[in-house]
């Protein structure tokens, strides 16, 4: 008998797995070798209280005039390594790859972790709520930094490492599983207008029908904790280790929607939380969904399907301001 696809199982099944996946995400990663001085904890602000910030973003992408643009995540004079893993290293300093970076945090009990974030305005970075709030304890992170365009553990300029000063979040994980899943997003306000230098992506909220019609059209970038494997031929130069260079995968997308939850088949593991699923619309790059969880078969420890958050919350957030 053909086994029913996991993403068509009852909602309660994958929500339990989602919570397990969240726990694994928050324990992965490590601190960047060049540490800045300790800073005060960011201010955390609920969506309902975001009006007072007057944060601005207009959903349109922006490429700085002095930045080149490239459709490939690697320089034209390099060769990408392709094998059973559909991911390749993102090693380009050009737009739109320049907009993506590593989110580095420290919990209240001094555990270090990392996620992925994307610039969506001059000083705004999009990521997951579970990348700034511990879902197990509901405690807010004591320190968060953003490392733009981090490749092999190196940012283009050390002075561009940004401190997160404020965070607007969708959930603090005190609600039920479905509510937490649908609202697992955060917008971080950083202390530097990095978007002027690195550019930023826009966003578009697409219908489920549009996703399914173009299910192999999206691409995904994230700082996965299992990537790159430097024992593979061609990856030796990425000496900083796993999680210090983002992975890129094309030809993936949303395969199902249920009760507002998006399922996608892009390759992800811990560390890629907060990474954007990106679409090329009208010749420009837009965030269309936000990766946030991997469902794993506990018997084989292999991924089955992944979950994503819709980005329509960004329209609601910035309409309020």
Automatic annotation (TrEMBL):
InterPro entries reported for this sequence: Glutamyl_endopeptidase (IPR050966), Peptidase_S1_PA (IPR009003), Peptidase_S1_PA_chymotrypsin (IPR043504), Peptidase_S1B (IPR008256)
Instruction: Write down the top EC class of this protein.
Output: hydrolase
Q: Which UniProt keywords apply?
A: Hydrolase, Protease, Serine protease, Signal
Q: What is its EC number?
A: 3.4.21.-
Matching entries from Gene3D superfamilies are given as: Trypsin-like serine proteases
Q: Which Pfam families match?
A: Trypsin_2
Q: Which residue ranges run through the membrane?
A: none
The UniProt entry's sequence similarity note says: Belongs to the peptidase S1B family.
Task: Tell me the protein's name.
Answer: Serine protease
